[in-house]
Amino acid sequence: MHTTMFVNLPVADVDRSREFFGSLGYSFNERFSSDNAVTVVLGDNHFVMLLAREAFDSLHPVRTADASTKECVVCLGVDSRAAVDALVDRAIAAGGTEGDAEDHGTMYGRSYNDLDGHSWQIFWIDSAAAP
Question: Rounded to two decimals, what is the model's pTM?
Fold first, then answer.
């Protein structure tokens, strides 16, 4: 149904966000980046655009939530339990804060909050055991 996905999130400092997500191993789509935004590549045609708060605020006439009000949780699947731990551990080492963890045997996940307080849930599902 959809060919491309962009999640837009406000950030306090675009350069700091670029450094944070770069340290986690993400690449960037420079075509959609500028002084006011950095576009993080999540997968084929899946992106998160981190916009300077002023640029984000200009998109819509409603008040922008800050991280004290949860606007969403971005959930991203990875290939293994080890990949969950590796990514979340890198995020915490880079200055993010640890969130919750769940282990249901065939589904495992951990979360972190980035430098602006946005929640990222990283999960793995054992597809062989899934119904």
Answer: 0.89
